[in-house]
Amino acid sequence: MYPLLFTPIYKEMIWGGCKLSSHYGRCLPSDHTGESWDISYREKEMGRILNGEYAGLPFSAITGYGDENRYKWLGRWFAEEEFPLLVKIIDANDNLSIQVHPNDSQALSISGEKIGKTEMWYVLDAPEKGSLIIGLKDEVTKDMFAEAVYQDDGQAVEHMLNRLPVKRGDIIYIPAGLIHALTKGVMVCEIQQNSDLTYRIYDYGRKGLNGSPRELHKDQGIAVTDFENRHKKTVIPGIKVNGTPFTYYIANRHFCIIRYEINNTVYTEESDPDKFYIFTCVEGRCVIRAGNSFTPLTESNSVFIPAALGKYSIETSHCTLLKSFVPDIDRDFYLPLLKAGHTKEEIFIKTSLVT
Predict the structure, then answer these.
(1) What is the CATH number of domain 6-224?
(2) CATH code for the domain defined by 239-353
(3) Distance CA 312, CA 327 (A)
(4) Are the C-beta atoms of residues 256 and 355 closer than 8 Å to each other?
(5) What's the rounded mean pLDDT across residues 229-258?
(6) What b-and-e string marks burial along 294-306, b requiring 16 or more CB atoms within 10 Å of the CB?
(7) The pTM of the whole model exceeds 0.90
(8) Domain residue extents for the chain
(9) Which of 28, 109, 183, 326 has its CA 20 to 30 A from that of 20?
């Protein structure tokens, strides 16, 4: 039992680029590499272990159903469940399509898939005065938007989109139902439900890598879009807990996001037998020591912490990590913030907490 690294699964995209190479020194298969799936547990995109005695094996080889060790790796919560998370790095060398994702019930009823897609972005790089498309402008109605979409009125569609200025280090929560898109020059770490279900509503009239027009999903997209402004369309400020390296950002039934800022120290904590953790390094580097294992973690990469690992330490001169996991919302997020002296009102204003 030791922390696992994985060989990235690269995805060629019409809008992809080379920043994973120029920023992080990765060897890419294409000059249009749009995505790197770094923690992936999917039948057709199964991550392969990179380090230690299990190197070269698919993730499922040590965590398959019926394997008595499955709960030790994934946690008691997931012994009989699907693997819940997917972690990516996305390089938008051009604008992505205007898109939206369904929730679980919509995914099942519309597309026959069990899992919808709620996600978050951590901005790794952005141009000066860069922005993202997050939601629609407040005055936009379903009828207005649908008319523009069905008439292929790109100018009208783009006019209705809400643009959110962003910079490196910003965190944005993107629940199912929220219209969104990465824009040219932005690179993000994306942590999401383990789904690849996207409804593409508008795509600037582009053709795909095969030369054919890219498929749109107008009916499905309009059906699942939030037109009631229920979702935040802002950067999540987060709450830093004094005396700790933690800043709390997001908690819902799908995932929790806590940022660690660690400098010139060895920080020690313990795994949770109920669940696994994932750490994604978004700045600096560190070594994770667990028993006799030493796992280096460099910028842009992710590591899987098994549920039964026990004590482990993070050793670094400087690193910023995103810790992602499926939480007990009260125990892992809400109550620690209350105990630290933060009010209910502050928690709901400064974080994205969905109970």
Answers:
(1) 2.60.120.10
(2) 2.60.120.10
(3) 19
(4) no
(5) 96
(6) ebebebbbbbbbb
(7) yes
(8) 6-224, 239-353
(9) 326
